[in-house]
Every structure is written in C-alpha cells, then in structure tokens.
Amino acid sequence: MPVPEVEPGTAGPPCAYARLRTEQPVVKAQLPNGETGWLISRYADVRAAFADPRLERPLLSAWPPREGADAPPPCLPTFLEMTGEHHERVRRTVLPLFGRKRLEFMEPRIRAMAEELVDAMVAGAEDGTADLVAGYAEPLPLRVLCETVGLPHEDRDVYLPHTLALLGASGLTMEEVLAALYALQDYASELISRKEREGHGEDYIHLLLAESRRPGAELARDDVVSFVVTMLMAGYKTNIQHTGNALLALLTHPEQLRRLRDEPAGIGTAVEELLRYVPLMNAINILVAKEDFTLHGQRIRAGDAVVPVPASANRDPEAFTDPDRLDLTRSPNAHVAFGHGPHTCTGGHLTRLQLATAIRVLLERLPDVRLAVPAESIPWDESTPLRAPATLPVRW
Asked: Where is the signal peptide (predicted)?
C-alpha cells in the first residue's frame, strides 16, 4: 500500500491511519521514493520504536543503500543520526543550551521579537486586517534561530534554499537531496570558520566552539557543523508551519481561544495539546532494523526500513481520550511530537517556548483577533510533508 496522504487543505494526520491502527498496525508500504518500509501507527509501538536499540536512523547519504561507484560520499550525521557513544557525548554537551536556565535568558529576547513583529503587522495593516503567516508565523522562527544559534540573518538567501530543498525531499532526486545537504554542510563549516575568527560570543555556535577547544572536550569541530545543519533542518520550516497550523487551530476554536486569552496561565498545557493535535512532522521517519524481529505477527528483517508515524500515534484512542478533539486543558499529555528515547528532539523546549511566546504576545496585543475569511477559503502550502495555511487573514 502507499503511505497514506494528508487530505488537501488540512494539516493531517491522514484519516487512513485510524483503520491501520485497528486492522494493520504494522504494514508494508511503498514510500514516496519507491522504497518499501514497515509503517507503525499505534502509539505504544511508535513510542517503543523510537527507543528500540534494534532500530537506528541511517545517514541521509546511506539510505536507500547503494554500493560501488554509485555510492555517494558519506555526509556528517545530524543529531538524529548519531549513534552510541558519539551521540551520548554530543548530547551531554548540547543539552544545557536548551535547559531551563538558558531558556530563561532567551525568553525576553524572543518576546521582544514577537512584539516587534505584531506591532509592525498592525502598523502596516489595511482596514484592520493582515496576513498572520507573512507578518508573524513566518518571520519569527528564523529570527529566533538566528538569535539563538548565531546564524547571520543576512545569509538567509544562501542557507534557506538548501534547507527547504531537504525538507521537500520527497519531490527531489537523491542526487538533488545530497547536493543540498553537502552545500548546507559546506556553508555551516564556512560560517564556523568565521565565528572562530571573531572570537568570543554568546550565541550557541560560539559557545559550542569554545567547548570544543577545551582540553578533554567531548565535542569536535565537525559536531558543531552537524549542530548547525540539524538546527536548520529541524528548527526552521517545521516551526513556521506548525505555528501557522497551531494559530489556525486556535482561530477555528474561538471558545477555547477566549478561555486561553482570559486564563493565560494555561498556556503551557495548551502548547502541549497543540503539539499533539497538529502534526509537528508528517515527514517519513526512517529507521533501519539492525536484526530480525517480529512485531504484531510481521517478520521484520535486518536492513528493512521501519517507519514510526508520530502523527498517527498522537491520535490513538488507546493513549488519548477523544483524540480527534482539541482540548487545551488536556492533562496528562504524553504525546510523541518530539519522538522518544535517546533521540528525543534536543530543541523541543525551545520550540515550546517559541510557540507559547507567539500565542501569548498575539493575545496580549490583539485580544480580539479572529479570522477575516471563512476557514474553508484559506489557501494551503503543501510543498513539504507538513502542510500549513499559506495565508492566514485576520482582523482585530
């Protein structure tokens, strides 16, 4: 069977996963690139797969496997692809950058960016209406990424095309995907050389470079290159599109939006529900089996691709009561939007902070914000696996 597709004009997940969870929780599917893989759709199985040592994420340059003269040169692993002791020591070094203390330092800076964008959007509005995507959801994640990681905003015409090519990889040839990846790695290496010449700084690249130069450091220069590539691939377009989808979900549930506006202390719980309800990533999560094993009667062989689907897991009625309903007060909420296990998304807390700040500032500045057009008339950007509204006309 083909991988279920998201219905046009929606963020997903595809309705077909409800049947698969019930009837075929492990099923062989044809992936968009023509390869086959085992789709895993139930919450318990998806959560277990992400933490299963028998499954590992292959290098982008190594899957599908090719041998001989056709084999591309290996690329540096992103944080998702690092394994074993290498992954453990890099994660130990990087995690403090996304901890509570560092995010407390970043919160007022992210808030200032969000306030500036809302004020500019209001100032440029015609007849009290504006596009919330172009004016707010789209520019904010890049500004946050530049501010935290240390990416030069003026270089965006260099690194963003490569990043977008990788995120839309299902429509490209393998050669085009790898060309974008190698170009992004080259850019990251050149940027790090610039940072090395600059000396001290407070952005993440400077901090990691300083750590890599410390005697006995657990971090190498190539790991800093991988960090930059990982943050671009995971922290840019996905945050733009998830923020747009989350805002649309709120605007189409006005009673819940009003409650959140009147009770802002509930923003943390609301963000967790938006992460569960709106797929953070509909893309294909490829894992490869290192040994044979059986799951729900299906024999998975060493070398087989295994594809856990978080968007399906987060709508599993065995894990969530009334899972297709948006409930901003849902608690507990053990979603798997950021994966699970050793490769749980390192930047998950930064994503939470960014989304919470975006919602909070919008409701403070524009307490009566509402859609300016019927929801069904909104055009959609379906250029990458995570679909999102292309525009979001609002008035206040």
From this structure: none
| pLDDT tens column, 229-258 | 999 998 898 999 999 999 999 999 999 999
Alpha-carbon gap, residue 245 to 388, rounded angstroms: 6
| CATH code assigned at 164 | 1.10.630.10
Q: Is residue 158 part of a domain?
A: yes
**CA-atom Rg of the chain in angstroms:** 21
Total domain count, the chain:
1
- Kindly indicate the confidence band of residue 283, based on its pLDDT and cuts at 50, 70 and 90: low
β-bridge mates for residue 30, sequence order: 2, 36
Query: CA torsion, points 151, 241, 357, 117, in degrees to nearest 10?
Result: 70
The β-bridge relationship of strands 287-289 and 393-395 is unpaired
Query: Taking all residues of the chain, what is their mean pLDDT, rounded to a whole number?
Result: 93
Is 42 part of any domain?
no
> What percentage of the chain's residues is helix, strand, coil (to nearest 5)?
55, 10, 35
List the domain range (segments joined by +) for residue 260. Answer: 75-279+333-395
How far is residue 343 from each of residues 55, 84, 91, 222, 249, measured CA to CA in Å? Answer: 12, 11, 9, 19, 28
Residue 128: per-residue pLDDT: 85
Query: How many whole angstroms separate alpha carbon 382 and alpha carbon 244?
Result: 13
Residues constituting the chain: 396
**pLDDT tens, position by position, 43-78:** 999 999 999 999 999 988 888 887 777 778 878 999
Reading the block at residue 259, the tokens are 């409650």
Residue 369 has pLDDT above 60, yes or no: yes
CA 360 to chain centre: 21
The answer to whether residue 239 is domain-embedded is yes
Sheet order of strands, 129-131 included: 129-131, 393-395, 370-371
Residue 171 has pLDDT above 70, yes or no: no
The closest alpha carbon to 41, from 9, 11, 7, 15, belongs to 15
27 phi/psi in degrees, rounded to 5: -140, 140
